[in-house]
Structures are given as structure tokens and as C-alpha cells.
Design a protein that fits this description.
about 10% strand, TIM Barrel, two-stranded antiparallel sheet, alpha/beta, single chain
């Protein structure tokens, strides 16, 4: 396992970070098995774990709390707040002072710890002034409940604004950013990664396998691993989906729908990547994860295994250095700074998602 300094924080973390989103009812409901996965990751040299309160509505944090008993002091623990933790109580969400304090206390309790090493804002909050958010987070740092703060999937303009506000108002500043990054989602190379480097921020990237697309499971001529029933339901309204399946609708509708043009392009590129990986003497999974670690701005790549086999299948990527000719070939398939599907960039501002933001009101 290789290790890097998390930006200019002085904290050393493994180049692979264990993501816990799949621990619990949304992935692996067997708590004991999840604990075994955590222990195997720690035994392999991973000292960095990432979760969020919204993963299983606290279940993921509870599992991590069980797994880290007796080993807490050796692990850098990261979690997040922001996403709704209730469909009924409107203020149990967001990045306001009133919610951040309570969310942190809830996470500390579930994790069974007296401090969080890295507390992150899960997404930008257009309803809350960043000064309010940074002030609340700074108080948590001063109280000793949080060691560092970070942001997740913030666009470069909001990263710059947060750094400026922190300096101007005397707040603790974001030490990290957590954006999506993979061969298929390279948009952060344009500005986000250079901005993070400029401000000395660590970068922990998520979804290096692009939700399974870069495992080789999704191919032309191979039956889609996602059931047709799920594909049909992915475009149903949220409430209808939950009645139909008994669980929340997937984050990105149609993510694995072969009929969508962007996924047709992925199917083509996957075949070229499989050939490239074979020529380089490695599985596609290793190629995909190692690609994210090749960028000098990336501190750690988050892997999110659901099973022990998935964990063991990704660990070797930490020690791989992709040669220039392989990286050049990837650049030809997916040009630098390109997102094959804009919807997978992790965050789209209201100006793109709300038509009212782009249209003058009738006179």
C-alpha cells in the first residue's frame, strides 16, 4: 500500500480509501460480513475510511463503528452531512448551522467515537450562505469534535469562494474535496483538480469504476447484469419506484440502460479498454483504479466494495504505475476533461437543473 499526505494537512493516508456506502441495507445487509471487509482492508494497509450519515440512514456509520472498536486510533475516519435524513422533518438536511451541529453529534454517536477526522459537506447548498456553513464547521473543530473539514463534489467556483470566505471571516477552511473521477468521468481535470492543487487541498475521488462500467461486466453481447425490471423502473417517479421496489430510486436513472446514446458509447470504449488492459497485463478493474491514482492532484481513490471478493480484487491497483503509453491510449479513447455523461458529474447547479433559472418571467 502506498501513502500520501492529505493536501497540506500533514495527515498521511493510504492511496486507497475504503468507502462504506455499500455497507447496510443498500448493499450488503450482513453486518458481520461488512466488519470482516473493514478488517481485511485495514490489514492490507488501508488507514482511511469514508462514509456518510445518509448511507443507509446511519446504518453504514454504525457498521463502521463496530468494525473500528479497538482500532480507531489507527484510522483516519471521514464522514459527511447535508443530504436529507428524514422525508418528514424538513430541517434534518442541508448545510445550515442548526442542522450541522446535530448531524455531527448523531454521526459521533453512530461511529462510537469522540471525534471525526474529516467532516465533509456532501454537496453544495444553494439555500445556505457558505459563511454560515463554515462558521458552524469551524465551531466543531474548535470544540475538538472534528479535526478537519472538507467538501464533496463542489465545483471550482464554489471551492474558490469557500477559501476566500474562510480567509476573510477567520473560519477554518476546507482541507479536501471529494469529486467523482474515472476514465469515463474526467471533467474535474479541467479546473477542479488544478484549483485543489493551488489551495493545497487533498483530493479523495469516488466511483473509480464508474458504478461498475469499468469492471468489464457491462459489454456488448453480454446480458445486462441489471434486471430489465429495474431498468424499466429507473425512470419512474421516486414515490412510485419505492412502492414498486420497496427501496429508493437509484441516484442516476438509466445509469446502466444500454439503449441510451451515452451508454452505447461506453459499450464501445469498454471493449477498447479491455484490450488495452489485457495488453498491459492487468484486469480492467486494476487499470481503472490505477488511472485515478496517476493524477498528481489525487491523494486517495475511494473503493466501495460490497463483498470481500470485490475488495481483494481492487487492492492490487494501489501499487500499480500505469506507463505513459497506456495513459496516452486512454486519453485517445476519452479525451482529458471529458464527462461521457454530464449527469454523472456528481453535482449540477440549479442553473442547469431548474429551467426558471434560465428564463425571464413573463412581462
Amino acid at each position: 500500500m502506498r501513502y500520501n499526505t492529505l493536501g497540506r494537512s500533514g495527515v498521511t493516508v493510504s492511496s486507497l480509501c475504503l468507502g462504506a456506502m455499500m455497507f447496510g441495507k443498500d448493499g450488503n445487509p450482513d453486518h458481520d460480513d461488512c466488519v470482516r471487509i473493514v478488517h481485511a482492508a485495514l490489514d492490507a494497509g488501508i488507514n482511511f475510511v469514508d462514509t456518510a450519515d445518509v448511507y443507509g440512514y446511519g446504518e453504514s456509520e454504525e457498521i463502521l463503528g463496530k468494525a473500528l472498536r479497538g482500532r480507531r486510533d489507527d484510522v483516519v475516519v471521514a464522514t459527511k452531512c447535508h443530504h436529507p435524513m428524514s422525508d418528514e422533518v424538513l430541517n434534518r438536511r442541508g448545510s445550515s448551522r442548526s442542522w450541522i451541529g446535530r448531524a455531527c453529534e448523531d454521526s459521533l454517536r453512530r461511529l462510537g467515537t469522540d471525534h471525526i477526522d474529516l467532516y465533509q459537506v456532501h454537496r453544495p447548498d444553494p439555500l445556505t450562505d457558505i459563511d454560515e456553513t463554515l462558521g458552524a464547521l469551524s465551531d466543531l473543530v474548535h470544540q475538538g469534535k472534528v479535526r478537519m473539514i472538507g467538501c464533496c463534489t463542489f465545483p471550482p467556483s464554489e471551492i474558490v469562494e469557500s477559501q476566500w470566505v474562510a480567509e476573510r471571516r477567520g473560519h477554518v477552511r476546507f482541507r479536501t474535496n471529494q469529486p467523482p473521477y474515472s476514465i469515463f468521468v474526467r471533467g474535474i481535470e479541467r479546473e477542479s483538480l488544478p484549483v485543489c492543487q493551488k489551495y493545497g487541498m487533498g483530493v479523495l475521488t469516488w466511483s473509480p469504476l464508474n458504478s461498475g462500467w469499468l469492471t468489464g461486466r457491462y459489454r456488448r453481447g453480454v446480458e445486462n447484469p441489471v434486471s430489465p425490471r429495474a431498468l424499466i423502473a429507473m425512470n419512474r417517479p421516486r414515490d412510485e419506484f419505492e412502492r414498486f421496489f420497496g427501496k429508493p430510486r437509484p441516484v442516476y436513472p438509466g445509469l446502466h440502460d444500454y439503449d441510451l446514446p451515452q451508454n452505447q458509447r461506453k459499450l464501445d470504449i469498454v471493449e477498447s479498454l479491455l484490450a488495452l488492459a489485457a495488453e498491459a497485463g492487468m484486469p480492467l478493474v486494476h487499470l481503472a483504479v490505477a488511472f485515478t491514482l496517476a493524477h498528481p492532484a489525487v491523494t486517495s481513490s475511494i473503493i466501495g466494495p460490497r463483498t470481500m471478493d470485490q475488495l481483494l480484487g481492487q487492492l492490487p491497483a494501489a501499487d500499480l504505475d500505469l506507463p505513459s503509453d497506456v495513459l496516452d491510449a486512454i486519453d485517445r479513447l476519452v479525451p482529458p476533461g471529458t464527462d461521457l455523461n454530464l449527469g454523472e458529474a456528481g453535482y449540477l447547479p440549479p442553473e442547469l437543473t431548474d429551467p426558471a433559472k434560465r428564463r425571464r418571467p413573463p412581462r
